[in-house]
Design brief:
Low-confidence stretches: none
Distance between the termini: 43 Å
Radius of gyration: 22 Å
Strand content: under 5%
Number of domains: 1
Structural class: mainly alpha
Largest sheet: none
Number of strands: 0
Helix content: over 70%
Oligomer: single chain
Order of helices and strands: HHHHHHHHHHHHHHHHHHHHHHHH
């Protein structure tokens, strides 16, 4: 039996019996080191080097900033702006959930965090308006996944570090696809809500209430302008922008809206520690990814796929199907670290821009947020709405279709991702 097959069997067995993913990957990596007689110090060296890159600090800082903005009143004001902008139409609160998630995604950088922030406010209101509860949960779960696509995005930061791709270019590349997916989600929400007769309560759109809501929420609107404007204006790096975001959220929550208390700050720090604890996956998965070079896995994958087709669109479609399948039981962070090293050389050899492949990868990860048994967003939405993950999993299927359509659009029109980065920075060399 070949060593590679032994490793695959070991990893699958460890995963099936419920061993935590970081331990499964770590034990499999140790077994690989033993089989090819490489010193175990590689694990320690990789573990240290994987956690030292300065941009990695961006993730906990953006998570903390997003949480402080949520509990400090900025999320509620964003929802109020979205509510007054949408007005009273069929499915209006569902549309508000999607639109507000897009706005908050520009603050949090995390799919589950966006789902929690927006869903905790809009799901109870959708219940009151007679929405089917699993459908309400499905809306916030799918819209919350935008937090991983619209900049700043934690997953794009990880991809940028693993692939050595410019993080500002990746952030800018996520804007147009993020808007497209938002519109697709709103279309699905509106069609289903209209057929079922949901919503439509409240006053229709008028400029007066919207402008008042926008003025009240001007500090909330100012956050993404400050963060992204500072990055692309050259005032600070993405990591420095994350630090600015934390300071901004503390200042606004404590001194402007005055809804932030010491107890809420401590709770936000605890939430950040729990959510960013997943970074423990980086060390073993990065070591495992390095070992793929010893087994010549990227070359084998490249030869295997190109023997089937060398059409870039078909290759991306095959990779997308694989990513969606693997995302049902693997954390998105581990998925990016493990498989970017395998697939990026292949798609690059076919002329696919690494920036485009990063956005493509994150969209497939977003689908993973919505597919059981792992489905991080489904878990958060189920907790908020008080129904089982199984029921939300069925209700979320039309929204998964919207993400699949978005993925296909990127495959057919890759310029949707690279147009803005190339316009601002020039074409990549």
């Amino acid at each position: 039996m070949s060593p590679l097959l032994i490793l695959v069997i070991a990893f699958v067995i460890l995963t099936i019996i419920g061993v935590p993913l970081f331990a499964s990957v770590g034990l499999t990596t140790l077994l690989a080191l033993y089989l090819i007689d490489i010193p175990y110090t590689l694990m320690a060296q990789t573990g240290y080097s994987s956690l030292t890159p300065f941009p990695l600090l961006t993730i906990p800082l953006f998570v903390l900033a997003g949480r402080l903005m949520e509990v400090g009143g900025m999320a509620n004001r964003m929802i109020n702006i979205a509510t007054n902008l949408v007005g009273a139409y069929r499915g209006s609160m569902g549309l508000v959930s999607v639109f507000a998630s897009m706005l908050f995604a520009a603050l949090s950088g995390s799919g589950p965090a966006t789902t929690a922030a927006i869903g905790s406010v809009t799901v109870p209101e959708m219940k009151r308006q007679g929405y089917d509860v699993p459908f309400a949960g499905a809306i916030v779960a799918s819209a919350g996944a935008l937090g991983s696509l619209i900049p700043p995005s934690n997953l794009l930061i990880i991809y940028g570090l693993v692939s050595d791709t410019s993080i500002p270019r990746l952030f800018l590349a996520g804007v147009i696809p993020g808007i497209i997916v938002t519109l697709l989600l709103m279309v699905v929400t509106y069609i289903i809500s209209r057929r079922r007769g949901y919503g439509g309560e409240g006053a229709p759109f008028s400029w007066g209430p919207f402008l008042r809501a926008a003025w009240d929420g001007k500090w909330s609107i100012g956050a993404p302008i400050l963060i992204l404007g500072g990055i692309y204006g050259g005032a600070f790096t993405p990591t420095e922008a994350a630090g600015v975001a934390v300071f901004y959220s503390l200042f606004v929550g404590l001194f402007i809206y005055r809804e932030l208390t010491l107890k809420k700050v401590i709770a936000a720090l605890r939430f950040t520690a729990l959510l960013t604890g997943i970074l423990i996956l980086i060390s073993p998965t990065l070591a495992f990814g390095q070992l793929t070079a010893f087994y010549d896995v990227p070359t084998a994958v490249q030869q295997g796929i190109t023997s089937i087709t060398q059409n870039p669109m078909l290759v991306l479609l095959l990779i997308g199907i694989f990513y969606i399948f693997i995302g049902t039981f693997m954390e998105s962070l581990a998925q990016i670290v493990l498989f970017t090293a395998v697939f990026l050389p292949l798609v690059s050899s076919l002329g696919v821009d690494p920036v485009m492949f990063g956005i493509f990868t994150v969209i497939t990860c977003e689908i993973g947020f919505l597919t059981p048994p792992l489905g991080a967003n489904l878990t958060v939405a189920a907790r908020i709405s008080g129904v089982s993950i199984e029921r939300i999993s069925v209700a979320v299927l039309p929204f998964i279709l919207a993400y699949v359509v978005g993925m296909l659009l990127l495959i057919v029109f890759p310029e949707l991702t690279v147009a803005l980065p190339n316009w601002l920075y020039g074409a990549a060399k």
